[in-house]
Amino acid sequence: MNRKETHSIKTTRDALSVKLDYLSIVFDKAKAVDVINKLICLPIDIFQRTEGGVRYKEYTKEYSFGQVILYGDSKRTEANPHGLGCYLRLGGVGCSDLQMFLTTRKISLADFFNDCVEYFGEKNFHVTRLDIAIDDRNEIPYFTIEQIKNKCLKGEFIARSRNIDIRESATVHEDSEKAETGKTVYIGKPKSNIVFRFYDKDREQEAKGYKSPENSGSWKRVEMQLRKELAHGIAMYLKDSKEGLSLLAFDFLGENLRFVKADPNQRNKARWKTCRFWERFLGDIKEVPLSIYQPESDLIDTRKWLSVGGCLSAVKLFYRLEKLQVLGDLEGIEEELQRVRYSPELAKKAVGHLQRIGRMDLIPLIYEETKK
Fold first, then answer.
1. Pick from 203, 199, 196, 293: which is nearest to 249 by CA?
2. pLDDT above 80 for 106
C-alpha cells in the first residue's frame, strides 16, 4: 500500500465492535434441564446428553448443543439429595450462539442476567468468568500489537498488575514462503481476577485456516478476562445498567488500563500523559455495535485435517482398490463406514454447523450415529 492510498483510509469507530467472548456460571440449586428450558429457552431434546463432569465438582452428565455446554445431574448425597447444581460454560463460539438466541427473542444480555436472578435467585448463582472482546477491523488500526508490546517492555503503562507476558508465533502464507509473526501481549497474572490480552486476531485466523471475505484484512483484538467476584460484579452491573455491553467495555478498559508517554521530568508515572493512540482508541466513550460476527463452521478444522493429514488420500486409495477388486483379505471401506460412529466431540461440531446453517431438523440424525 503506497503513501497516497494510506492517507485515503481513515480509522473510524464504525470499524469497532464488542462481543461477549467467554461466560461461565455456576447455579447452586438448579438442574441443567431448568437452565436450558427457562434461561436459554431451547427444547431439551436437541441437547446431547453424555457422561461428563468438571474437576473437583460432583456433576455426572454433560448437556451440549453445538458449543453451548452445561454440566449437571450432580451426585445425590445426604447434603444434596436431589442432585441439584449445574455449570454453564460458553466459549467464543458458544457466546456467539447465545447472542444469536437472545437476538431472536429480542432481548439483551442485561435481560439474560435479570432472568438468572428471577428464575434462580440472586444468591443461588455465581458468574465465575466473563470475557469481553473489542475488535478493531480498521485497515489502519488504532494501534498495532507491536506498539502495545513496546509500551509494555518500556513499562509505559498503568494497571493493577505490572506482570506482562509476550508470545509470538509465525504464520507462513499458502501462496508464498513469507512468514509473518503474530503477537499476543498479556497484562496481569494468569490466575488473577483481571487479565488484559492484546493480539493479532487476523494472524490467528489465518493460522487456523479461517480465510473468508468476512475475516480477511486487518483485525486486532483487545480482551478483558474477568474472574470470580469481579466477573459476577460486572454481570450484575450490566444487569442493572442502561449502558449496554459496549459502553461498559470501554468504560472498564479506560478506568483499569492506561498506556502513557514517558516524561523524563516527572518521576510520578501517574502524572504522565496518556499516549495518543490510547486516547484515540478510547475516544469519547460512546456505544459501538455488538459483534454480529458469525464464526466459521465448527467443522472447518476437521475438514482441514482431512486434507492436511492425508486421510482423504487414504480413503480414496481403499475405494480404488475396492473398485478394482484387489482388496485381497482387506475389508471393504464401505462396510466399515456403515458401522462407524461419530465421537461426541465431532457430533458437537456437526450440531453447531447445522444450527448455524438453519438445518436443526437434521440434528437427531447426528445423535443417532454418535457413540454413546
1. 196
2. yes
pLDDT at 286 over 90: no
Give the DSSP letter string of 232-268.
HHHHHHHHH-SS-HHHHHHHHHHHHEEEB---TT---
Residue range 301-311, pLDDT digits in tens: 666 656 655 67
Cβ distance 245 to 130 under 8 Å? no
Strands 194-200 and 257-259: unpaired
Query: For the chain, what percent of residues have pLDDT higher than 70?
Result: 85
Average pLDDT over residues 168-194: 78
Residue with cell 510520578: 268
Half-sphere exposure of 195 (CA within 13 A, CB side): 18
> Under 8 Å CB-to-CB from 28, ≥6 apart: which residues?
84, 85, 124, 125, 126
pTM: predicted TM-score of the whole model, two decimal places: 0.81
Per the prediction, the chain carries an average pLDDT of: 85
CB atoms within 10 A of CB 95: 24
What the block records as the C-alpha cell of 223 is 480482551
Under DSSP, is residue 67 helix (H, G, I), strand (E, B) or coil?
Answer: coil
Terminal-to-terminal C-alpha distance of the chain:
54
